[in-house]
Amino acid sequence: PVVPSVAAAMAFAPAARRLASRFAARPLAAAALRRPSRFAALGARWKVTTAVDGEAGTPEYRMRFKNAAGAHISPWHDVSLFTGEEGVYNCIIEIPKNTKPKMEVAIKEPGNPIAQDIKKGKLRDYHGPIFWNYGMLPQTWEDPNVVHPHTKCAGDNDPVDVVEIGSASLATGSVEPVKVLGVLAMIDDGELDWKLIAIRTADPLAAELHDIADVEAKCPGVVTGIREWFRWYKTPDGKPLNAFGFDEVALPRAHAVEVVKETHEAWKKLMKGTTDKGKLWIN
Question: Which residues, in sequence order, are CB contacts of 76 under 8 Å at separation 6+?
Fold first, then answer.
């Protein structure tokens, strides 16, 4: 029998696949790095390169990042959040669409390489493929010491997650400017885990999508599919369904931009040492 999370995801897969097949894949956009300061308002456009240690599908696998000069950098702390365009941010792609390995920026390891998550000594895979590209916003942090006034939940101690709904499958480690369209307030094990809905600016559909209402109108079923996929995906591990704040509504672009600004401010406090870093790696 099909496990519940996969069944729920598959029920909403056609809408995601229609969006994916509407346009042919195009080359990845150029990456952007911050310089000269982590706290600069704008990021200079620099080329990011990656180097891999270990074999894919093993606990030793690590994807490390370098800047244009060949120096090792942290994708979390050194890649700029900002692109110079309002509402457009750099996104680090961790998981390409239609794949299962749970790749993520290792926020507790030196240099914050991308690695496959490990739970209970085993490499972690989703029980069914994710139908969108998945990544994170650099220079953001959901502070576990701050309780959100509406959801009454504290942050999940991670960078902000991004669900990128464009047509192309984006490679792990690519840095993509994305246009933020809306946000879901997922509640996972009592923690607030924002899920930004975005599209990369190089996608042909990006010019038609400006807010979450446009996604609902032009890509029917996509927002529902994202919500239900994340509601169910942990249940095969014996965990309960995830919940969503704000009456489960996908909040508009303006709210999403505020989430980005708030979590960027939280990250700046973390880097300045005014917030306890716990086991997080910062340099």
Answer: 92, 105, 107, 112, 136, 138, 139, 159
